[in-house]
Design brief:
The structure is a single chain. By secondary structure, the chain is of the alpha/beta class. The protein has one domain: TIM Barrel. It has eleven helices and eight strands. It has an eight-stranded parallel barrel with strand order 1-2-3-4-5-6-7-8, surrounded by six helices. It is globular and about 45 Å long. Bound molecules: 2-phosphoglycolic acid (PGA). The site of 2-phosphoglycolic acid (PGA) has 13 residues, from strand 8.
Length: 250
């Protein structure tokens, strides 16, 4: 079964509402009619409204960069799945390495967030990936397996149906160093095997696994040509409408 590729923009902490609107003014005409791939843009929370307005009526979906697992309550600074759904978000990034590195995200909080997002019908993009020391110590497979096992804890194939994984080797994020298509492919095979163990072979065969880490217009084609790579999670190169278009059209 062919998996439709998903090309997702992770804007991180860049752009204000006006700049977000401008991005869509430039971007949408360039990708008009492009439905070979699914396109998602994940701006900072305060730009969600502007992005949703600007993308209305287009094929571009809007996602958030994080979510909290409770529905509401005294959790200063947090945003829930129900809130994201209420404004019109359809996707959410969970467990990005920057959240793990700087904001105390753990495999267990990733699992809680994943369950909440799925419960509310969001498409979660769960990020996994090893740091450089882990790769150099030959621990990549162990790390990926652990991150997957713990993220998938207490989920069924039915509940996890919308799951998307992004393999993002931490040493490749924002560094200009990309994993080779072969390295990415090998990691995706490990992740897919873990998904098969947790949710069965049919689930694993349909699961989309994106690659992220210095995806640029000039390496997108080679990465997307791999059977194992079902799309991209793009940081830096997604901020500019022209370069993101070039990646979408790899
Ligand atoms: P990058 O970021 O494309 O700037 O390396 C990718 C990501 O962090 O999702």
């Amino acid at each position: 079964m062919a998996r439709k590729k998903l090309i997702a923009a992770n804007w991180k902490m860049y752009k204000n509402p006006e700049q977000s609107k401008q991005f869509f003014t430039d971007f949408l005409p360039m990708v008009q009619g492009h439905d070979r791939d699914e396109i998602v843009v994940c701006p900072p929370y305060v730009n969600l409204h502007a992005a949703l307005e600007a993308a209305k009526g287009s094929q571009v979906a809007i996602g958030a960069q994080d979510v909290y697992w409770k529905e509401e309550g005294a959790f200063t600074g947090e945003i829930s799945s129900t809130m994201l759904v209420a404004v019109g978000c359809t996707h959410v990034i969970i467990g990005h390495s920057e959240r793990r590195q700087y904001f105390g995200e753990t495999d267990d909080s990733v699992n809680l967030k994943l369950k909440a997002a799925l419960e509310h019908g969001l498409t979660p993009i769960v990020c996994v990936g090893e740091v450089l020391e882990e790769r150099e110590a030959g621990l990549t497979e162990d790390v990926l397996r652990r991150q997957c096992v713990r993220a998938f804890n207490a989920l069924s194939a039915r509940k996890a149906a919308k799951l998307v994984i992004a393999y993002e080797p931490v040493w490749a994020i924002g560094t200009g160093k990309t994993a080779t298509p072969q390295m990415a492919s090998d990691a995706h095979v490990i992740i897919r095997a873990e998904a098969a163990k947790a949710f069965g072979d049919d689930f694993a065969a349909a699961l989309r696994i994106l690659y992220g880490g210095s995806v640029k217009p000039d390496n997108a084609h080679a990465l997307m040509a791999e059977d194992e790579i079902d799309g991209a999670l793009v940081g830096g190169a997604s901020l500019d409408p022209k370069s993101f278009t070039a990646i979408v059209k790899y």
